[in-house]
Amino acid sequence: MRHRNGNKKLGLPTDQRLALITNGAKSLFTYKQIKTTTLRAKQISRYAERIITKAKKDNVTARREVMKMINDPKVLKIIFNDIAPQYKETPGGYTRIIKYGIRRGDAASVSVLELV
Fold it and tell me: Taking the model in full, what pTM does it have?
């Protein structure tokens, strides 16, 4: 059953939340790892895993779908040329979340999100 499997709100309106997740995924694909709060890392991880799964089928349709989700030609090239071929045989689990500690200013739990 799919009960209560929706998105976390992250305390943001929908457009800002989607922008945060999209930009986090772009940074993850560009730098291979990012440091952010644990809840944001989990949401970005879900989004990035979907993108990589679509990118494994390297055809025009997959490129268009990923471009809709990412909207950055440079990152699109990184995904299809570097990242997707690396995970061609892997069925899932492309990202890893490592607990980093607690942020000093607001005591938020911080994690490192990285590509495996």
Answer: 0.92
State how far the Cα of 107 lies from the Cα of 40, in Å rounded to an integer: 15
Q: Position 46: which residue type?
A: R
Contacts of 38 (CB under 8 A, 6+ apart): 97, 99, 108, 109, 110, 111
Name residues whose C-beta falls within 8 Å of residue 19's C-beta, 6 or more positions apart in sequence.
none
> What's the CA gap between 35 and 49, in Å, rounded?
17
pLDDT tens-digit series, residues 48-98:
999 999 999 999 999 999 999 999 999 999 999 999 999 999 999 999 999
Are 43 and 61 within 8 A, CB to CB? no
Q: Which residue in the block uniquely carries the two structure tokens 């997959």?
A: 62
